[in-house]
Amino acid sequence: MPVSEDRQKFVYDFTEGNKDLKDLLGGKGANLAEMTNLGLPVPPGFTITTEACKVYLEGGEEPPSMRDEVTAHLEALEERMGKKLGQADDPLLVSVRSGAKFSMPGMMDTVLNIGLSDESVAGLAVQAGDERFAWDSYRRLIQMFGKTVLGVDGELFEEALEEAKRAKGVTTDVDLAAADLKALVAQFKDIVAKETGRDFPQAPREQMDLAIRAVFDSWNGDRAKLYRRQERIPGDLGTAVNICSMVFGNLGPDSGTGVAFTRDPASGHQGVYGDYLQNAQGEDVVAGIRNTMQLAELEQLDKASYDQLMQIMETLETHYKDLCDIEFTIERGKLWMLQTRVGKRTAGAAFRIATQLVDQGLIDEAEALQRVTGAQLAQLMFPRFDEKAKAELLGRGIAASPGAAVGRAVFDSYTAVKWSRSGEKVILIRRETNPDDLDGMIASEGILTSRGGKTSHAAVVARGMGKTCVCGAEELEVDTKQRRMTAPGGVVVQEGDVVSIDGSSGKVYLGEVPVVPSPVVEYFEGRMHAGADDADELVQAVHRVMAYADRMRRLRVRANADNAEDALRARRFGAQGIGLCRTEHMFLGERREMVERLILADTDTEREEALSALLPLQKADFVELFEAMDGLPVTVRLLDPPLHEFLPDITELSVRVALAEAREDANENDLRLLQAVHKLHEQNPMLGLRGVRLGLVIPGLFAMQVRAIAEAAAERKNAKGDPRAEIMIPLVGTVQELEIVREEAERVIAEVEAASGTGLKLPLGTMIELPRAALTADQIAEAAEFFSFGTNDLTQTVWGFSRDDVEASFFTAYLEKGIFGVSPFETIDKDGVGSLVRSAVEAGRATRPDLKLGVCGEHGGDPESVHFFHEVGLDYVSCSPFRVPVARLEAGRAAALNGKGGSDSR
């Protein structure tokens, strides 16, 4: 729907907004307004809203009233500053910067020094008393404007700049004199004219208007869309545009620009963290084109600005009650704040900071749960490098984003994506990354750069994505043209060679370094306890946050486990029962032939013999499982495999029989087997004779399994144990199927109770995995004491595709085209599958108010899906043992977010 602009305001002065208006003003604009309200030194400016962007993107034109609003705000800014945009003698210059609701570092466009021209550059030089500064600012404008607004290949400007430095015999742009920069400006203007067919625009207002459009357009740029898909940011939010009066960090040694963090974004530790670059402007720090000095060194250069910055950082962290990421500029000893936002951080830092802020009384436990995510916890459970292993150290950089990443060296994003799609694990190695490298960064196991610090593009984006990153490894010489990296001592890493990077220490190794379990996994396994060193400090933070989650959550968390070993691990990880025991896994290996005999039995005698042989084996499995989970519920799903999983492959068997017949030594059993396999062969086994259908067609099959469960429970109970078995009938589509199986099961359970002298409570329920079952949940609930949603099969049957077949064939295209924001097998499809789950919950509980409801597909361990299951009122989620901690955390986060906590005994 088009955005209505009736009496709508599209432009806000920085004095008019606040931090709560991110939907309208974007994150950058809202926070600039908030800092202005706090009385901090923010250069005056105004923000064009996201609503204006939406109008522009829908119709290709700005709202008609927007231009007049911009003019009015620009005139007010000019009056306040005492100068006009681009005037010849003393020009007002502005920056035009993007600013979406959610931080998208480097993904959209920014243009600095708007208002400079052939005429005003001389006036700027006089006003500043620095000719070099003026021409440096002008060349930056043409370079940024040419690339981002006019679409000129940025490499053309970079090559010209590099050539100018080579000709002068210098290595950095600050060593170029005014005359060099003046010549470079002329060269840049020639590049623009040649590549675009027009001269660089000299009218200041035209520059600003074109830059505003470019920022709007960048919302739908390839890299912005790719980043939004990666970070699951909605595509319909639009971006705001911030017009800010320029302050200059490139005015000499008493000027500079920097990025600061109120805490270390890599570790979470308190202290002075950030980067500063003398005589530099805006993007130089995050671009990584020059290696920066540490923020602490600023104290020696400019103590007054340093002290003021420290005070402002404390003010902002207390105000936002979180780690803040700050951009600032010092102009000839005057400090200016250009941006603040809640900073991206590593997974370990997120947990440490959350508990630190609780201890400081800034946030409570419920808020602490909103500062961490299940995805971050999963990252902390990944393995790390074995410090005792022998490894060849190539060099060391800055530990920008932790993790242990191993892969083949690649030196450009195209190769990273290409090799990754072929199944190779790769490490992307660059001098520095830029936003165009995003697809390569996503495809890589980790990123290594020879330039830049903790605030460089590579570091910020990697932390946001949870990717391992080492930056600023200056001793490693990266040659992207020759596709190689040279280490001290002459060791050369060619493209394709395996390297290992440690984002926790900054070390870079040649070859593959062995890994060991994460200390967080060791903690969950009970092999590690909180102590004093750094790893134990992290464990202590995780321990505390998990305690917050367990106190808050309503959803219980079970595990999917088929044997005692997995069940015990799940229990150590905090599982409160088994939500899915797949009995078909108990019939693989040596037992497969026994099931094959059962399926192919021609007579009642053959079938009973097969069942009698299977019964004690099944019972022994359940005895072990009930002992491992004593006192906790164990939901046992009766046999549910597609039939073909227990039969010989029809092609292989046909070939074997044909060859035997050709040799005239055909085996009678093989001939009989082939005949039976042909009879039972299915074109689509996933929708064939399986689940409850198999139990109804093969007499005694489900009765044998129920008997094994009942006898195991009775044996455990007579041994003073507390077995809590639940029997689940799979693939039910109609209540009549369930009623038939239930009647038989109750008869068997009664027989076992009589024989063992033990009363048994064995609830009978079903798995809701077919659309018809969800749609008739009110009827099915009459015969079921619990539902467990099998969301894997429900997703397949709702969408009409097989996961195994389609993920490799067209899912990539669907994700790239935006048809899927994320795979429906990874995160539940709320509109389709989720709608069926919601309606089945309501209908089932309307029939049976005490109906117990759970989910046992892998969606039960997906963070976003857990929030949905909390919302619709399930009692528990069940997932693989390794994902149990993630589900526990997300269940707590869901309760904290909705203000509804507390345990539920169901």
UniProtKB/TrEMBL annotation:
Keyword Metal-binding appears in the UniProt entry: yes
Domain PEP-utilising enzyme mobile, residue spans: 424-506
Domain of life, per lineage: Bacteria
InterPro entries given in the database record: ATP_grasp_subdomain_1, PEP-util_enz_mobile_dom, PEP_util_AS, PEP_util_C, Phosphohistidine_dom_sf, PPDK_AMP/ATP-bd, Pyruvate_phosphate_dikinase, Pyrv/PenolPyrv_kinase-like_dom
Gene3D superfamilies, per database record: 1.20.80.30, ATP-grasp fold, A domain, ATP-grasp fold, B domain, Phosphoenolpyruvate-binding domains, Phosphohistidine domain, Pyruvate Phosphate Dikinase, domain 2
Cofactor: Mg(2+)
Pfam families for the chain: PEP-utilizers, PEP-utilizers_C, PPDK_N
Span of domain PEP-utilising enzyme C-terminal: 540-891
Enzyme Commission number, as recorded: 2.7.9.1
Keywords per UniProt: ATP-binding, Kinase, Magnesium, Metal-binding, Nucleotide-binding, Pyruvate, Transferase
Span of domain Pyruvate phosphate dikinase AMP/ATP-binding: 65-291, 297-348
GO molecular function terms listed in the Swiss-Prot or TrEMBL record: pyruvate, phosphate dikinase activity
Record field: catalytic activity: pyruvate + phosphate + ATP = phosphoenolpyruvate + AMP + diphosphate + H(+)
Family: Belongs to the PEP-utilizing enzyme family.
Protein's recorded name: Pyruvate, phosphate dikinase
Lineage of producing organism: Bacteria, Bacillati, Actinomycetota, Actinomycetes, Kitasatosporales
Protein encoded by which gene: ppdK
